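U., I forgot to send this yesterday:
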Amino acid sequence: LIEKRHQESQKETEDNQLHNEMQYHLLKIGSSLGYDVIAASNDRSRSWNGNKFSFISLADFPPLDLDKEVLNTVKLIDVLWFNKGTSEVVAAFEVEKSTSIYSGILRLTDLSCSVVSNEEVFYLVVPDHREKDVIMQLSRPSIRRGNTQMKYICFSELRQHCDALCKFGNDHSVMQKIARICV
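Result:
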């Protein structure tokens, strides 16, 4: 029983570290591209490899004219990029390591239904082995018929290309180089 608890605890720690790593890459890329970036409200005290999210993230969430319940949900989106000095969302990312992929889709959809512009891009960031799950969820009629176009990025692509995206990217469209769509 003790061994089983130890293994579960170790697995949870590894999952959290991998989630933190992906969030850090997204924060780093967004910041390098000149956006204001913010981690989920419950993740801002986290770090990866000695890099504290609080040093990259905005200190406070930009004001958005949303219902309280929707705003609380939006604040839980793993990473948001805003045009500098504004509350205009340009990209939103949900890292789905071990939680339900559908929960990330719902948070992104809530944001999409609540913002005025159609310029934003919504991404699920997933482990490579969960790609089929993402395709299955994004293929659901309720998602395909919605107005929110979601793309997904595999962990290996984000990890491998993070520094290049930071160095050579001009704006959020650079993420299209590693993003995939469900057709």
